Amino acid sequence: MSMESERVSYSHFDVHRHVDKSPPAARLPDPEGAHAVVDYRNVEYPAVTGEAYDALPTYPPRAHFNQHHIKMRPSTQLVVFDGCPNDPYHPTSMPIYQTATFVQPTATTFGPYDYTRSGNPTRTALETIVSGLENAYAAFAFASGMAALSSVTRLVKAGEEIIASSDLYGGMYRLLTKVCSRLGIVTKFVDTSILNEVLQALTPKTRLVFVESPSNPLMKISDITGIGVGIKKYNPQIIYAIDSSMMTSLLQRPLDLGVDIVIHSGTKFFGGHSDTTVGIVCVNNEALAKEIAFFQNAEGTGLAPFECWLVLRGMKTMSLRLEKSQENALKVVKFLSSHPLVTACYYPGYYYDKNNDQKRDFETEIELHKKQSRGGGSLLSFDTGNTEISRQFINALKLFKITVSFGSTNSLVEMPCLLSHASIPAEKRTLPESLVRMSIGIEHVQDILNDIKQALDSVSLKYKNTSKL
Predict the structure, then answer these.
(1) Smallest Cα–Cα separation from 254: which of 231, 277, 283, 234?
(2) Of 134-148, 167-181, 301-315, 415-429, which range is least confident?
(3) Which residues are CB-neighbours of 368 under 8 A, at least 6 positions away?
(4) DSSP secondary structure, 265-312, as one string
(5) For position 423, what pLDDT does the model report?
(6) What does the DSSP 8-state code read for residue 343?
(7) pLDDT band at residue 449, thresholds of 50, 70 and 90?
(8) 246, pLDDT greater than 90
């Protein structure tokens, strides 16, 4: 084995790296020509203190982080991805580096990892595959979706402003109104599905524009590209972020549409089994990567090794799960839209609303969603126009689990105003109290439809005259 030493630069640091000049032991599969995998086990950083210490990377700047996106379809990437190409034993499953600390080479040099809060090989593997799926410069795995969202708000300083979707997840609303407000940050809530409302809300103080598309839970569609063009024309320094949890990287890639930051609650589809919480932040440039990495390390919000492994395992079947649940969801939407108790049904790319009290332009939203995504996912919401009917319906379900969250293998149901969006004051909510949100799972679709039908029938039989409710 031929070993040589060379000096490379990271930021303003000189990094000594022992380079193996012989053929690498393992490579990421790439039929169109793989980049050589660099063995970062021998990376060493100089021992420094103070501000210089904080500037050190919290993970090795691996070549495949932003240069080696596998030239395969995403469903294949999820299966063949090798998270540890330098492991001499070539495991088929990414090892769990269940350790808090890593031994350093000398008293005056650091290795690629020192403390799991700052970086861990299992977490790096997860971050690497997600960055490839999103076509991102880098990705970061957090202990929860809220930890990921919080890290993005850290990019905003006191006296600056955030523009956010008025129809958004209740936890994000709480973060913006109860936490960011204490830090001197003002948030404006606008209907981001109306482009002009976003552009008219921009001011010289605007630092971050945060969008959900589709929105949760009314499934409003925003013009992702149009908003990006508008805010960058107004001020290129404004950060444009989107929560794409409902779509995942398989159905929508916002970074390719002009977004700076994409956030996922990986608890949903990435993990897929309701057994771990995880948040993902994907960024499109090095400057944002350094800032997010700093806050993740400084506040200790990185995802633990075992949870990273659970997500990596779940992601191997994400494409299959999403395909099946989406197929089921479309059939559920069509069934609900034809039922007499249902007054409105909202699903990305398919809408039914008897009254359209919100005056939404559904045709435009459908065309937008088709243009910027590859499907509608598995989340939907519908309304009965009566809170008691909705409550009785949910209580009559047998197959569905009443719970917050979505994207699991099994079908889930809730009333957002009572669970996922309960933190939003009633007078501030943009959704009806009677709204029902359903996350459709991978069960046999006929069993799902039968359960919904029997629940609706039970309500109809109990209240033949719904005016009594």
Answers:
(1) 283
(2) 415-429
(3) 221, 222, 223
(4) ETTTTTT-SSS---EEEEESSHHHHHHHHHHHHHHT-BPPHHHHHHHH
(5) 67
(6) -
(7) very high
(8) yes
Going across the sheet that includes 401-402, the strands are 350-353, 344-347, 379-383, 435-439, 412-414, 401-402
pLDDT for 5-41, tens place per residue? 333 333 333 334 333 333 333 333 343 333 344 555 6
**Beta-bridge mates of residue 3:** 20
d(CA 351, CA 81): 37
Helical H segments across 82-184, by residue range:
121-134, 145-153, 170-174
Question: Per mean pLDDT, which range of 190-204, 390-404, 420-434 is the poorest?
Answer: 420-434
Say whether pLDDT at 453 is over 70. Answer: yes
pTM, two decimals, is 0.87
> Would you say 294 and 264 are in contact if contact means Cβ atoms under 8 Å apart?
no
b/e sequence 369-403, b meaning 16+ C-beta within 10 Å: beebbebbbbbbbbbbbbbebbbbbbebbebbeee
Cα torsion 151, 155, 160, 164: sign: negative
**Mean pLDDT to the nearest integer, 263-291:** 96
> Is 62 a residue whose pLDDT tops 60?
no
Query: Terminal CA-to-CA distance of the chain, rounded, Å?
Result: 80
Q: Dihedral angle at the C-alpha atoms of 51, 55, 59, 64, nearest 10 degrees?
A: 180
The number of helices, as runs of H, and strands, as runs of E, in the chain is 15, 17
Can you list the positions of beta strands (E) in 279-398?
A: 279-283, 344-347, 350-353, 379-383
Q: CB under 8 Å to 366, separation ≥6 — which residues? A: 221, 349, 350, 351
Return the exposure string of 173-206: e unless at least 16 CB atoms fall within 10 Å of the residue's CB, then b: bbbbbeebeeeebbbbbbbbbbbeebbebbeeeb
Task: Look up tokens 């991805």; give the residue.
Answer: 81
Number of residues in the chain: 469
34 Rama class: left (phi>0) / alpha (psi -120 to 50) / beta: beta
